[in-house]
Amino acid sequence: MSNKIIYHVTTKGEWEIALDNGFYEAPSLYAEGFIHCSEEHQVEGVLKRYFEGKAPLIKLVIDPNKLNQRLQYDFSPKMNDTFPHIYGRINIDAIIEAIEL
After folding, report:
1. Can you name the residues that pair with 56 across neighbouring β-strands?
2. DSSP letter string, 3-31
3. Predicted pLDDT of residue 62
4. Going by C-beta distance under 8 Å and a sequence separation of 6 or more, which residues neighbour residue 61?
5. What is the pLDDT of residue 1?
6. Average pLDDT for runs of 10 along the chain of length 101
7. What three-state secondary structure class fits 66?
8. Cα–Cα distance between 101 and 66 in angstroms, integer?
9. Which of 84, 89, 60, 88 is nearest to 72 (CA)?
10. pLDDT score for 2
11. How far apart are CA 51 and CA 5, in angstroms?
12. How many CB atoms lie within 10 A of CB 38?
């Protein structure tokens, strides 16, 4: 697996639910089969495209080496870029930091 840290943006409410559950899951896991993540240089674009005007937000800092689920980089033709996707719930211990935005 990659050693490169990846990120996922979520709401504070969804993060609080994850802490209670002991794992994080996003609606996209059921709708698309994976949780969308980003590399550091992609986070700003994700915030502008999907989270404009939404608050409070949390940026999850994820260590791929600690994931219990498959991490795969998939090409997005719409964005002409490759993004990391996690194919399953994110175990809490893989999230090394939660940063309020």
Report:
1. none
2. -S-EEEEEEHHHHHHHHHHTEE--HHHHH
3. 98
4. 5, 7, 95, 96, 97, 98, 99
5. 46
6. 85 96 95 97 95 93 97 94 97 97 93
7. helix
8. 24
9. 84
10. 52
11. 21
12. 20
Give alpha helix (H) positions in the chain.
12-21, 27-31, 43-50
- Going across the sheet that includes 95-100, the strands are 6-11, 57-62, 95-100
Residue 49 tokens, joined: 């495209």
- Does the pTM surpass 0.85? The reply is yes
Rounded-to-integer distance, Cα 63 and Cα 71, Å:
11
Residue type, 44: E
Domains of the chain: 6-100 (3.20.170.20)
Q: Is the separation of the CB atoms in 74 and 36 below 8 Å?
A: no
Q: pLDDT at position 24, please?
A: 98
